[in-house]
Amino acid sequence: MRGKKLPALLLAFALLFALPACNPAAENPSAAPSQAASQALPSAAPSSQPSETPSNAAPYGPIRLAVLSGPTGIGAARLIDIAKNNPVDLHTTYECGIFTDNSELVAGLTNGEIDIATVASNVAANLYNKTDGGVRIIAAGTLGVLHILESGGKTEINSMADLAGRTIYAAGQGANPEYILRYLLQENELDDVEVVFADASEISAKLLSGEIECAMLPVPAATAAILKSEGKVRAAIDLTEAWDGLKNGSQLIMTAVVARTEFAEAYPEQVDAFLTEYKESIDYVNNNVDAAAEIIAALGITPSASIAKQAIPQCHLAFLSGTEMVAGMSDYYSVLYSIDPAAVGGVLPDGAIYWVPAA
User: Fold this and answer.
1) Cβ 275 vs Cβ 139: under 8 Å
2) For 75, phi and psi rounded to 5 degrees?
């Protein structure tokens, strides 16, 4: 599968029309729940003037937060919902956007229009290397979200060993999914497996039609395919569990939360406030699946609440920060580098990539 790259000018233009403010006054009231409102984030840095408002209000301007639809944004759903509807309940203020492609977030972080974003973990390493330290990883948000699916109502695949000699259709060429699959096949000595890369929607259609029998998809695409199949497609292998089964000390971490270095260094209190509220959001989603599913669908992060409800437990949502984050991310990057140095931008990122608050 070949990825399509928009010209930088087009990406910049798209940013102007894709990122809605979490502030209700800035939101487009006519937009459908699954659509992004056509409001741009302010390009200026937050004000450094002290606030006379109560202590739970923001002492600076709003944090410009961007997340990806799908599993990368699911953990932040509760935070975004509160920021839209009950902002006084938060320690700081936000202007939020939900995007569909990592490249849009990379453009916003690079040109200063986004302060904090959830991105694929390999994208975070690439961006750090390409910008000479222009971003810092402040947290990890999800572990693994990939699943091997089997179609045709069969139950022949239950472990990595059962993939021997098969053809796997897979989404995510040149990104985390490809590197993860390649690593798991290598570690399980499955040299006879053929991998065919294709778009997730194409793979889903072929699974549902019975044209293919084995595929790798991320949640919630995997969840949607299973629900639509009415029992003809099943989740055969959770690749997070397969990774853990290697028992090599590394941890599968697919989502990194990054902040612009300039922003993090200028406003560490804002970063701390975000981390507190992001953790609370992840905890809420994990512990209130039904209510969270409605929020996630209303924000357009997944196509429906039913898909979100099934997807949440499969996302392995987790909050890692500080030294725990450093240990997990650095080990994971070492694995990616061993598979393909290009996965992390050609060189392993140094320790300065991690933003660890002072004790």
Assistant:
1) yes
2) -65, -25
**119: enclosing H helix or E strand:** strand 116-120
Q: Which residues of 149-165 are buried (b: 16+ CB within 10 A; e: fewer)?
A: bbbeeeeebeebebbee
Handedness of CA 277, 282, 288, 292 (dihedral sign): positive
Task: Give Cβ neighbours of residue 93 (< 8 Å, ≥ 6 apart).
Answer: 22, 23, 57, 58, 61, 62, 63, 83, 87
Q: Which of 128, 130, 69, 186 is nearest to 333 (CA)?
A: 128
- The tokens for 62 are 């709003």
Residue owning tokens 């995997």? 222
Give the burial class of 43: count Cβ atoms within 10 A of its Cβ; 0-12 exposed, 13-18 middle, 19 or more buried.
exposed
Cα dihedral sign for 82, 86, 89, 91? positive
Average pLDDT for residues 104-110, to the nearest whole number?
Answer: 95
Task: Look at the alpha carbons of 100, 101, 102, 107 in this order and tell me if their dihedral is positive or negative.
Answer: negative
**Cα separation of 333 and 286, whole Å?**
26
Whether omega for the bond prior to residue 220 falls within 30 degrees of 0, making it cis, is: yes
Q: Which of 175, 131, 254, 222 is nearest to 3 (CA)?
A: 175
Instruction: State pTM to two decimals.
Output: 0.83
Total residues belonging to the chain? 359
* Cα–Cα dist 294/278, whole Å: 18
pLDDT in tens, 122-170: 999 999 999 999 999 999 999 999 999 999 888 999 999 999 999 999 9
